[in-house]
Amino acid sequence: MGWPARLTSGEVTVRPLAARDAQAWRDARRRNVAWLRPWDATVPPGGDARPTTFRSLVRRLNRQARAGTTYPFAIEVGGRFAGQVTVNNIVRGSAQFASIGYWLDREYAGRGVMPRAVALVIDHCFAAGGLHRVEIAIRPENSNSLRVVEKLGLREVGYAPRFLHIDGAWRDHRVYAITREECPDGMLARLEPHQSHE
With contact defined as beta carbons under 8 Å apart, do 104 and 113 qualify? Predict the structure, then answer.
């Protein structure tokens, strides 16, 4: 359900992350090491810290996508690789729930790219994906990511102490969520008034 998918709004496209993205992905991650480090997931002590190649990452994500537990999207701006939005932990049954994580090349920051990409993905999760609720967890210090959920109008629903292992330690997160009933016209429609003022 809902995979694979290619979604476009303006100059922003989200589409399945692919092995052919390897060079652009590595280049973006290398250029943005300092920009992304404070927000990147890390392996806690005692976890499996074996290095992962991009190819093995894509294989694992594609396996999870086929199983219906993950949607790994690449973000393109004007046809160029710009980052990633991943729908994680898709739960079916009585929950119909998922969480979303994302990162963006700093070159594209401040242009409304990430709110648009996340809006596309949430709309897809609710329509083709059949989900009911989507959640985004953000470190309180991550002002750029907090601005994304603010632009999208997601409600803060909780605070999760020591929620994820990020940048070498267990970090607190603010939790934001939205249900299908809260955006009957879709997230992109919600975003448009913000875009016109940027």
Answer: yes
Of the candidates 24, 164, 22, which has an alpha carbon nearest to the alpha carbon of residue 105? 24
Q: Give the contacts of 166 (CB within 8 A, at least 6 positions apart).
A: 38, 39, 40, 41, 42, 139
Residue 165 burial class via C-beta count within 10 angstroms: exposed 0-12, middle 13-18, buried 19 and up: middle
pTM above 0.90, yes or no: yes
The domain total for the chain is: 1
d(CA 70, CA 15): 13
Instruction: Tell me, yes or no, whether 72 lies in a domain.
Output: yes
- Identify the DSSP state of 41: B
CATH of the domain at 126: 3.40.630.30
Mean pLDDT by 10 residues, the chain (198 residues): 93 97 96 95 80 88 95 97 97 97 96 97 97 98 96 97 95 98 93 52
| Beta bridge partner(s), residue 116 | none
* Amino acid residing at 160: A
4: cis peptide before it, omega within 30°?
yes
